[in-house]
Amino acid sequence: MNNPITHLLRPHLLQLKPYASARHEFKGQAEIYLDANENPFGSGVNRYPDPYQMKLKKRIADWRVVNPNQIFLGNGSDEAIDLLIRLFCRPGIDKIVIPAPTYGMYSVSAQISNVEVVNVPLLDTFQLDVSSMKRRFSDTTKLLFLCSPNNPSGNCLEAKALLEMITEFPGIVVVDEAYIDFCLGESILPRLNKFDNLVVLQTFSKAWGLAGIRLGMAFATPSIIDWMNKIKPPYNVNSLTQKIALEAFDTIDQQQAWVQSLLEQRKVIVDALKETACVLNIYPSDANFVLIRMDDAKMRYNQLLKQGIVVRDRSKVLLCNQCLRISVGTPDENQSLIKALQNNS
Ligand SMILES: *Cc1c(COP(=O)(O)O)cnc(C)c1O
């Protein structure tokens, strides 16, 4: 069997005999279930959920035009990030590569697993410094995380650089598209079949308005998905989450309307703040937030807080001196934000 990723796995996993759950060993339909020590009484959530979420995966597969065996579902994308590190990175030996600044969980998950993080600064346009990145690639750099649109800068990474990373990196490249629904540029997902070392992360937490159900998606070649399934907790996505996500597909128009409204509102915020004295620079955004350089980020953060408005102070982050990251809210919330900043200026 020619498995394109076996050589990248942590070798001890090849000996792993995964836990076989009751709902995995018997997959058919029966009259009487006495196999999982469940309570037969109860109000609909007394049974364990489908460990591989097949009904939901079929729906997602149709929507994203992939095969169900190219989908992993997790307790948020954060679970997928953690599982990928545990699949591929030997603690104390292997490394992950990330651009800086980017989403914080890649580095936190790596540190929890005792996996070294190689930080490569982005250019001051927040685009990839391709040659610096490539200099850090080695046979122990197993995972490269690229976030596009990037958090906290909000921009999409240029497609050409992204593709160059995927073809040149010796390990697995994870492209985190949590904000892809807000971006006019293209997703890398349609190219999934071209790359055995590509994992694309998406989530129900942003455009879908379902952060509370904790549901993230990873798309990859079936052999990577199989391995993620082998090491995940058996029932990692609960029944209520699966149910609510399936129902959300019935009102997908709502999701698209929200995205449209958030994009319009992003423009409202940008146009108003451009004219505001305390604002020095607004970075172009392809996401549902904007990164804004202030005259004094800490002071403005505290002023907003006094008026009941919480934003994210990113001023300690590389390349984000004096920057606040502000999520797009409802029209009313955005007007309150704009007024607060104008009055403080
Ligand atoms: C919000 C966000 C996620 C989503 O994580 P979930 O665990 O799915 O809620 C993933 N990646 C990035 C970059 C994010 O900003």
Describe the protein in words.
Strand 2, helix 4 and strand 3 form a beta-alpha-beta unit. It is globular and about 65 Å long. It is an alpha/beta fold. It contains eleven helices and eleven strands. The model has no long low-confidence stretch (mean pLDDT 96). It starts with 21 loop residues before the first helix and ends with a helix. 38% of the residues are buried. Helix 3 packs across helix 4 and helix 9 packs parallel to helix 11. The strands form two sheets. The chain has a seven-stranded mixed sheet, with helices on both faces. It has a four-stranded antiparallel sheet with strand order 8-9-11-10, covered by helices on one side.
Number of helices: 11
Secondary structural class: alpha/beta
What does the overall shape look like? Answer: globular
| Unreliably modeled segments | none
Give the names of the bound compounds: pyridoxal-5'-phosphate
Largest sheet: 7 strands, mixed
Strand content: 15-25%
Gyration radius from CA atoms, angstroms: 22 Å
Q: Give the number of DSSP strands.
A: 11
Query: SSE order in H/E notation?
Result: HHEHEHEHEHEEEHHHEEHEEH
Strand order of the largest sheet: 1-7-6-5-4-2-3
**pLDDT averaged over residues:** 96
Oligomer: single chain
What is the terminal-to-terminal distance? 65 Å
Amount of helix? 25-40%
